[in-house]
Structure formats: structure tokens, C-alpha cells
Design brief:
The structure is a homodimer of 201-residue chains.
Chain A: E1 5-9, H1 14-20, H2 23-29, E2 34-38, H3 41-48, H4 59-73, H5 90-100, H6 104-119, H7 128-136, H8 142-149, H9 152-167, E3 175-178, E4 181-184, H10 189-198
Parallel strand pairs in A: 1-2
Antiparallel strand pairs in A: 1-3, 3-4
Chain lengths: 201, 201
């Protein structure tokens, strides 16, 4: 099959950011493209009873250590947990969703730029103005991007995206669905690689 | 360094079982031995606010799928989630801890036999009698193993082991500590491999 693989992510998810640096190369290796789905983990956790890694005792300390260790392990330079973490991610998610409607490839480039801005450069992309300014570095009209954040139709579209994600079983970030098979986490990329190569195992 | 690597596990943990099939080969590759630490996830979750994977909506369905897929991915044949799952694991944990006092290598063999009995053959090792019978297949005196389950000193030793694990930051299973560096999950075995080879990264 040559259907795109579905990549669900929240802009405040460190492993989502690391996965975003790798997902296109992994898909391309198997002749696939990537469908980028920004979602809101806050809404997903509300529905599923999940909790951010960094809010649980012991697990929080471990996670903070593992984020940067995993970045080093995967050869991703420059990643560091921002001082302000986690953040609300409606603004960047809405901008990406708005762009997807007209130009999915541009939306993917902007998604990667937003992740880098937050996790590599410490830019607080929860701010609609700052998120729009990051989009502008990829050639997007900043005023239009800023307006999209408050557009009721885009707000509704993001809610729908989250609902559809939950309906497909998405409970975390990153979350990848390959031909109906769900994979949670950057640490399932080796399984995704084999699944794409063999159509299952 | 040549200190043993510390392997923490709960007998009701599917990924713990899969990791137990691989940990000794991984350690031996780097000239290390394994110190097997049975712990009780129930007590650990009580202290940390954690929850079993299979009690969370969506995550539960995913986990049940991922357990067996991960077994196949790692080439571990015969693994299947038992009908009775999860189970209380005081009995097998106490038997292993009791054996460790006199014969750590025998304790490790019995630990692997107990995991296989539960996750490969569906034996309910929460029963002290059945756990003792499994230990007997490795040459242990069944009556002595059965008595160890009710021995106040062994009960206390298991509580102490759990307390020490929590003090070292152990919040899940499997959990490996290599020269002070913590790794949670079978999916960190690739990072452990590199850490053991290079002393860090």
C-alpha cells in the first residue's frame, strides 16, 4: 500500500518533537508520505484519564533526563527542555491545521519549524503572535496566520481533529497509524520500520 | 566498570517478562552480570500515583496489542497475555528474594521459570503453591519455597526491596540501572546497549 502514514503529535510533547525530526525520512524510506495531525494532549488526557509525564513523582525526574538522553541517542543536536514547559498548544496547532487546508507540504514545514522554535530555541509558541512569527519564517503571511488562531472554523476543525484522533485510539504523542496499525512513541519507530517493510510481523 | 546491572521487575509485567528473556545476554555482551530485583508494582503505584497500563481507556487496548507485537518483534515465541491478568505477585517475588539470599544464580533461573510459567504457559503464579511448584522445576525444595512465602523475615525483606527501589527512582517495570543511570522499559535496551559499550552518551 502507498497510503500516507498518520502522524499525531502535540506541540508540547518532547518525544513528539524528536519523532517529527525523523518521521519523514522513515516514511520516505518505504515510499510513503506523512499526514501531519496536530492534536491537543490536554483534551485527550481529559477524555482518557492520562497525565503529563512530568506531573508524576519519580517519572517526572526520569522523563526530564530521558528527553535529552533520547535526543542524543538519536543524534538530534540542540534539543533542550524549555524553561516554560509544558505549554498550551492551541495556537501552533490551529496554524498548522489552517495551512493544511490549502498546502499540506507547507503545513508540515511549518510544523517542524514550530517544534524547533520551541524545543531548540526556547520560543514560547503558546503565544499566537510568536507562533505566527515562526510560520512567517517559512513564507506564511504572519497576519493571516495570527487571524487563523482566532477563526471559529479553525477552532472547530481542531476540536474535530482531536475527536477523530480519540475515535482512532490516539491517547498520546507521538502516535503513528500505519495502514490501521497503531504505534505509540518514538521508541516504536523500529517496529514501524519493520511494519512498513513487511506489511506486518 | 564491571559492577552488576540492576534489573527491577514485577512478575505481572508483560514488558518485564520480555525484558527478562533478553537482559542476561545484553549484560554478558558487555562483561556484566545481572542483579535481579523482584518488586511489587502495586506498592510502587500506590507511592507514585501510577496505574497499570491495562486500566486506562484506549491505552489498555493498545497495550494488549503491543505486548504480543513487541514479543514477535523481539523474536520471543510463545508469549501471550494470560486470561487472568494482572495478578498479585507477592508469592513469586518472595520465593526469588528468599533464594537470592543463598544462591543468586538459582534465584535468577527461578525468576525466568516463573515468568515463563505465567506468560508462556498461563500458570497462575499468584498462588503460593503453584509458584513453589514452578521453583521446584529448577531443583528447589517445594515445601521450603512454599514456607518462604509466609516467612515474616522474607515479607519484610520484600518490603525493604520495594522501599529501596523507590528511593532509587524505580517507578515501573522493567527498570534497569546501569552505573547509576536509570532506564525504564524494554524499549530502552538499545540505549542500555550503547551506554554499556561507551560508558555514557
Amino acid at each position: 500500500m502507498t497510503a500516507p502514514i498518520d502522524f499525531y503529535f502535540d506541540f508540547s510533547s518532547p518525544y513528539g518533537c524528536l519523532a517529527a525530526q525523523r518521521i519523514e525520512a522513515l516514511a520516505a524510506k518505504h515510499g510513503r508520505s506523512v499526514d501531519w495531525h496536530p492534536v491537543l494532549l490536554g483534551a485527550i488526557f481529559k477524555a482518557t484519564g492520562g497525565a503529563p509525564l512530568t506531573e508524576l513523582p519519580l517519572k517526572a525526574d526520569y522523563a526530564r533526563r530521558d528527553f535529552e538522553r533520547s535526543a542524543r541517542f538519536h543524534g538530534i543536536d540542540g534539543f533542550r527542555l524549555p524553561a516554560k514547559f509544558p505549554i498550551a498548544t492551541q495556537a501552533p496547532a490551529r496554524i498548522v491545521l489552517w495551512l493544511k487546508g490549502s498546502d499540506p507540504l507547507l503545513a508540515a514545514r511549518v510544523a517542524k519549524a514550530l517544534y524547533r522554535a520551541y524545543f531548540f530555541d526556547g520560543v514560547d509558541i503558546s503565544s499566537p503572535e510568536r507562533a505566527a512569527a515562526v510560520a512567517a519564517t517559512e513564507g506564511v503571511d504572519a497576519a493571516a496566520a495570527r487571524a487563523a488562531v482566532d477563526d471559529p472554523a479553525i477552532k472547530e476543525a481542531l476540536k474535530d481533529e482531536v475527536e477523530r484522533a480519540l475515535a482512532r485510539g490516539v491517547f498520546g504523542s507521538p502516535f503513528v497509524i500505519v495502514d490501521g496499525e497503531p504505534f505509540w512513541g518514538l521508541d516504536r519507530f523500529d517496529q514501524i520500520d519493520r511494519w512498513l517493510a513487511s506489511g506486518g510481523f
